[in-house]
Amino acid sequence: MRKKSVAEKFFWSQEKEMAKHRIAVIPGDGIGPEVIREGVKVLEAVSKNLGGITFEFSYFPWGCEYYLKNGQMMPQDGLEKLKNFEAIYLGAIGDPKVPDHISLRDLLLKIRFGFDQYVNLRPVKLLESIPCPLKNKKPEDIDLVVVRENTEGFYTGIGGRHKKGDSKHAIYAKINKVFADSEEIVTQEGVFSQIGVERIMKYSFKLARKRKKHLTCCTKSNALNYSMVYWDEIFKKISGQYPDVKTDFAFVDAICMWFIKNPEFFDVIVAPNLFGDIITDLGAMIQGGMGLAPGGNINPHGISMFEPIHGSAPKYTGKNVADPIATIWAGQMMLEELGEKKAASMIMEAIKKVLKEGKVRTKDLGGTSATSEVGDTIVESILKM
Ligand code: IPM
Ligand code: MN
User: Fold this and answer.
1) Which residue has the CA at smallest separation from atom 10 of ligand 1?
2) CA atoms of 349 and 141, how far apart (whole Å)
3) Which residue's CA is the nearest one to ligand 1's atom 11?
4) Which ligand is nearest to the CA of 112?
5) Do 84 and 22 meet the contact criterion of CB atoms below 8 Å apart?
6) Fewest CB within a 10 Å sphere: which of 149, 166, 354, 362?
7) Is this model's pTM higher than 0.85 or not?
8) CB-based contact 385:49 (threshold 8 Å)
9) DSSP summary character for residue 374
């Protein structure tokens, strides 16, 4: 490489100090735009306080309204448009006017799969002074992370409806009245690739190493004799590379029971796509509710997307009552992933402080504050740091 001149070095170092992050923002449907507004506000506040870090937000008005106008959830070249950003910040998707399997598959899942965001990182952490529905559980008892495989399992969309449904054969048969309605056959495949399973296991072991060095394999190999036995085998094989991490297996149904009875048992849990989806709703409830649960769809070498794990809650749309904390927290996870550790910890501190003070809380936490008041209070707290 050519040696840099003094002037070039100067500008280079200035540029390095002034990190500018280009973020694609998809506010989406329902309460999505309201919570994402607060998330963006908080990121701007961090930038203002810290200096040296700025954001350029580009907004994409995709979602169900877009679908009703254009017949698709996002433009044909949607992924192409997102390709030039460092990360994606998403509110929520879904509206009663559009079937969920269309709206979610054609936008949320399309992005998760399209950018190979194979890790769905979902921390389950009870913050201080948050009411927990479990008796006698304290913040130190509920502090775990679910690593959900995010590109395979039952989510690939491989399968079909035959004899009565939408296959060519079925349509032909229907016209000719060959089959009775009762003969319909439907399949939805569970897909597990060696590459897919190995990489999620490795990610989870590495994460466990940074925490309490305990990794639980969420499985169902007692019933699913191919896919989950394979999943367990790979877990065992990869564990050999991480002898310092304590391991165990737990069936997904038992994990549900333990989340209620002994959540303190867990540190990191690695779960296949569908099971990970299910146990993280339960996880959200034991950490205080859906309003507090963030998630990251991560491609460690590519473009990741951050979102609250709750849905679009259509009945609360435009009422300014939704809890924005999950989204603000997802923004914090985005900064972590972008390597902005200091900025990330600033947001986390502010969330904790405001919740602990307990003066400004939305309805889900027993308060009366508006969505925007919660955002404003977190902003104030950051600006004072
Ligand atoms: C989630 C959601 C999605 C999922 C739905 C909306 C497709 O429940 O992010 O947890 O199942 O992954
Ligand atoms: Mn879910």
Assistant:
1) 277
2) 20
3) 277
4) 1
5) yes
6) 166
7) yes
8) yes
9) H
User: How many residues are recorded in the chain?
Assistant: 385
8 A C-beta contact, residue 301 and residue 10: no
How is 21-84 classified by DSSP, letter by letter?
EEEEEEEESTTHHHHHHHHHHHHHHHHHHH-SEEEEEEE---SHHHHHHHSSSS-TTHHHHHTT
Q: Contact 316/291 with Cβ under 8 angstroms? A: no
Please tell me the distance from the alpha carbon of residue 101 to that of residue 106, in angstroms, as a whole number: 8
Which amino acid, 225? N
Rounded to the nearest angstrom, the gap between the alpha carbon of residue 255 and the centroid of all alpha carbons in its chain is 20
Which residue reads 């009552």 in tokens? 321
**What's the one-letter identity of residue 299?**
N
Q: What is the number of the ligand 1 atom nearest to the C-alpha of 109?
A: 7
DSSP 219-257: E-TTT-TTHHHHHHHHHHHHHTT-TTSEEEEEEHHHHHH
Instruction: Tell me which of 102, 103, 104 to substitute to probe ligand 1's pocket, judged by most ligand atoms within 8 Å of the beta carbon.
Output: 104
Provide the 8-state DSSP code for 191: B
- 146 Cβ closer than 6 Å to some ligand 1 atom: no
Q: Which ligand is nearest to the CA of 274?
A: 1
Q: pLDDT of the chain along its 385 residues, tens only?
A: 445 555 555 555 555 567 899 999 999 999 999 999 999 999 999 999 999 999 999 999 999 999 999 999 999 999 999 999 999 999 999 999 999 999 999 999 999 999 999 999 999 999 999 999 999 999 999 999 999 999 999 999 999 888 776 666 767 766 777 777 677 889 999 999 999 999 999 999 999 999 999 999 999 999 999 999 999 999 999 999 999 999 999 999 999 999 999 999 999 999 999 999 999 999 999 999 999 999 999 999 999 999 999 999 999 999 999 999 999 999 999 999 999 999 999 999 999 999 999 999 999 999 999 999 999 999 999 999 9
What tokens does 147 get?
Answer: 């690593």
CA atoms of 149 and 308, how far apart (whole Å)? 17
Check if the beta carbon of residue 238 is closer than 8 Å to that of residue 201: yes
Rounded CA-CA distance 318/376 in Å is: 17
